[in-house]
Amino acid sequence: MKSASEELRELIEFISRALVDYPDQVNVKHIEGEQTTVIEL
């Protein structure tokens, strides 16, 4: 089962790929800390 932050990362990746001219160049990663999650686009 995926975590909520992983599902959010996938959603952000899906939306961002739909909006750009070069979807293959989109890179999304998430970094989970003790209390927060950072999603980089």
What report would you give on this structure?
- There is one protein chain.
- With 41 residues, the protein is of the alpha+beta class.
- It has one domain.
- It is built from one helix and two strands; from the N terminus they run αββ.
- The protein has a two-stranded antiparallel sheet.
- A hairpin with a 4-residue loop joins β1 and β2 (37-40).
- The radius of gyration is 11 Å and the shape is elongated.
Total domains, how many?
Answer: 1
**SSE run:** HEE
Summarize the main sheet. Answer: 2 strands, antiparallel
Number of distinct beta strands: 2
Quaternary? single chain
Distance between the termini: 23 Å
Q: What is the gyration radius calculated from CA atoms?
A: 11 Å
Could you tell me the strand content as a percent range?
A: 15-25%
- Spatial order of strands in the largest sheet: 1-2
Number of helices, where a helix is a run of at least 4 consecutive DSSP H or I residues:
1
Q: Mean pLDDT, as a whole number?
A: 92
Estimate the global geometry from the Cα principal axes: elongated
Which structural category do the helix and sheet elements fall into? alpha+beta
Low-confidence stretches: none
